[in-house]
Specification:
Elements: E1 3-9, E2 15-21, H1 25-34, E3 38-45, H2 58-63, H3 69-84, H4 89-96, H5 103-117, H6 122-126, H7 135-147, H8 150-201, H9 213-227, H10 229-248, H11 250-262, H12 266-287, H13 292-299, H14 306-320, H15 325-330, H16 337-349, H17 352-408
Antiparallel strand pairs: 1-2, 1-3
Helix pairs in contact: 3-4, 3-8, 4-5, 7-8, 8-9, 8-17, 9-17, 11-12, 12-13, 12-17, 13-14, 16-17
Amino acid sequence: MPIYEYTALNLKGKTVHDIIDSDSMASARQKLRAAGIYPTAIKEVHETDARKKPGIPYVSRLFSKKVKQSEIAMMTRQLATLLAAGFPLVSAISTLVPQAESGLFKRILSQIKDAIEEGSSFAEALALYPDTFSDMYINMVRSGESSGTLELVLERLAEISEKQQALNNRIRSALTYPVLMFVLGLGVLYFLLAYVVPRITSIFSDMGQALPAPTRFLIATSELFKSGWWIILLIIVLAAAVISRIKKTEKGGYLYDKLKLSLPGFGNLITKLSVARFARTLGTLLENGVSMLQALRIVKNIVGNRLIAESIEKAAEDVEKGGGLGKSLEATHLFPHISIQMIQVGEQSGELEPLLGKVADIYENDVENTVVGLSTLLEPLIILFMGVIVLFIVLSILLPIFEMNQLIR
């Protein structure tokens, strides 16, 4: 059934933007008028509008709209509840379409509903939108459909998404204050160097004597910030663009991920976060009937690091030959020793899935505690850094004044 996007006026005279599915544009207008909504513009939304377009330029990909993961998690939870209450799948999705926050997600859900009505399975309909639904999501839904436990699988997916969102929010909250302090500190530093320092140091130009090295450095830095700020900004933008370009190449991305893992402190944090994602996702997939090999091939794409993904791929090859997962991962020397031990115990006891969940819990809590600790440490470091900079500025200004006093004496 065609989907139409419209702009209309409601009974209160307010402009509303939404979508509606109907047999024709005339029928869509009639439906809207019957609901007390009077369209001012209406157009058909084609199915390809919400799908991933191959060959799309880099700039378009950068600014293209995406559905938020929080919105997908909410939809998944609501869909699981409706299915558990006895709603047919198509009716449940139809109920959720008007509740979606973004117009893009409304269109996607409407088109998924149409695909199911045309004979596709739910997983096949989801697979049409790989930018919105991950491989893990699609494979778990496929497993739930084949086993007749779709509502249970959707509840599990909602739990995973909510846990990931909660962890991301806690990490973001822990880092918000230090980042804000750093940005404000940079703003104050720029104001001092670009506006305050030039007015004070202008009195030294008439002295006719050689200035101390710190003062000359301060004046040169001040001139750079005052008149060459655009050069600094251009260098930062170009450096970011070059790094982004390098990261997209196979070799450059591999070296970048290797560098991240080798960073003191942060490398260990990144490893733990990747292992937590690996364990959480693999355990969930195995619990819902996905085979070990297929689950490993899915998981390698979500860990966020090429070196760890490569180690998972090698482990999958060993498992295919009859080897154990724990022993295969241990040979890569990337996974922490505790995670390897717990995986091996899980394989020996037949309780791999719950132990993978325990591994994820351990490292998610460890990552959160580490981030909170780092944020607590960053606050005094930022204050100390700004204090040192201000002290240098003050001393650079006072040194010529002290020299003038000595000459007068």
